[in-house]
Amino acid sequence: MGSKTKVRVPCVPAVPCWVSLMAHDLDRAQAFYGPLLGWDFEPAPDRLGPYVRAVVGDGIEVAGLSMNTTQWQGPVVWTTYFGTEDVAAVAARVRERGGTMAVGPLAFEAGRLGLAADPAGAVFGFWEAESGRPLFHRTPGAPVWIELRTPDPFAAALFYGEVFAWDGRPVEHFEARYEHERVVLRAEGHDVAALAKGEPGRASWEVFFSVTDTEAVAEEAVRLGGEMVREPHDTPYGRVAQLRDAEGGRFSVIRQTENRT
To answer: pTM here?
Structure first.
């Protein structure tokens, strides 16, 4: 376990602000992600089971890892959490607009949260906590981009826009911008997420972690027992590799293009 002073990054309403992995084996998850992304781990209060926070750099908290202790063992997945000013209001709007509430709202020491699925089945969370800047950093090992792959990104944008009240927010803090067949979310002067067209019948949020060498990290993931889903390739946002961890959890790594903000 690391002993660095933790630097918590509060949630910004309406945009992704935290990511968390639900693993089958927490020790195995730490043994994979620790050396891969340079993470240290700090114990944290249990939520739905044993839970730790990953930290990088000067103790910046970048992700949560928990272990499923229920009898139902679903797939290992990364979940994206949006910031919100009111968990209860978001939960109500999820139901009103055709989504499904799975968990919560629940209260924890770090705030209140809920888990839901959008009408296309993509799972996401929302977290009511102290306001602040987005989670994303260029620090290696930190989440730097989130992407929803969904059959209809514009229908998804209507759903999330209504659930998180995108309209009417000051453009200097938040903007949803349409670019060809995707919707890009911009927060505090940075592009942080996109809603893009994906495979028919399948919708999911994917987390991209910042790295300095995409090829080296992809090779290390395989050495640690993971899988390379798609080999390193260039995108408008940087050089990306799509990976699975040692328990099948899907994520991506990216060496960002220097002139992207």
So the answer is: 0.89
